[in-house]
């Protein structure tokens, strides 16, 4: 059983490399691997059962395949479902993995709804993904993504949007990279689901606040 699980994970890693290899470095295969490692670490801190770890690992590894921001073909939305079926992952586990992936995005929680939050494994996978979006790596990813979209770093005349709807969040016209900190990244600390995630988020959040303070001072020629 353990060998079969390990083989499935190896194939999942290969699928991640194939599907995400062409993405910019903010959402590449390395991101998925970091989220997997974080999720397993959080799961152990939260003392999840061993039977939950395969769900956590596969959901974390596969969570960004078919991401709307990088979708090249509508068929990619079915890749994960087809992979799990081909690997013979049982229906109960497969359903949980797919529900976690579908519900874990920030855009799904803007209106106060987090699909899959009733699933024990959901919190650790979502928290892991959000931890990778904040702190030092989060800052690097944010500017990498902004650069890939030719977005300006900062414009004092463009204010961060407040009370965003899901549709508004997904449409990022005339937005700056720095505004993304205020519209999303600085909110993630308070949206963590697990105690382990909350603890780790504190340090990363503080680092982002210090970075932004320095950024604004340098922008204005004060530092």
UniProtKB/TrEMBL annotation:
One of its GO terms (molecular function) is hydrolase activity. It comes from the Eukaryota. Residues 24-143 form the HD/PDEase domain. Keywords: Hydrolase. The keyword Chloroplast does not apply. PANTHER family: HD_PDEASE DOMAIN-CONTAINING PROTEIN, SUPERFAMILY HYDROLASE, PUTATIVE (AFU_ORTHOLOGUE AFUA_1G03035)-RELATED. This is Metal-dependent phosphohydrolase.
């Amino acid at each position: 059983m353990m060998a079969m699980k390990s083989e499935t994970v190896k194939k999942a890693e290969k699928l991640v490399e194939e599907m995400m290899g062409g993405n910019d470095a903010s959402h590449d295969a390395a991101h998925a691997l970091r989220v997997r490692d974080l999720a397993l670490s959080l799961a152990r801190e939260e003392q999840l059962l061993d039977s939950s770890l395969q769900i956590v690992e596969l959901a974390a590894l596969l969570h960004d395949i078919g991401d709307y921001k990088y979708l090249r073909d509508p068929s990619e939305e079915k890749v994960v479902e087809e992979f799990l079926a081909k690997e013979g992952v049982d229906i109960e586990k497969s359903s949980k993995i797919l529900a976690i992936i579908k519900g874990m995005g920030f855009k799904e929680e803007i209106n106060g709804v987090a699909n899959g939050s009733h699933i024990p494994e959901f919190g650790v996978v979502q928290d892991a993904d959000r931890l990778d979006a904040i702190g030092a790596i989060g800052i690097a990813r944010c500017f990498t993504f902004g650069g890939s979209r030719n977005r300006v770093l900062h414009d004092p005349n463009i204010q961060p949007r407040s009370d965003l709807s899901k549709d508004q969040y997904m449409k990022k016209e005339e937005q700056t990279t720095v505004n993304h900190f205020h519209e999303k990244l600085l909110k993630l600390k308070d949206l963590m689901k697990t105690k382990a995630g909350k603890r780790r988020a504190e340090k990363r959040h503080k680092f982002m606040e210090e970075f932004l303070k320095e950024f604004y001072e340098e922008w204005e020629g004060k530092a």
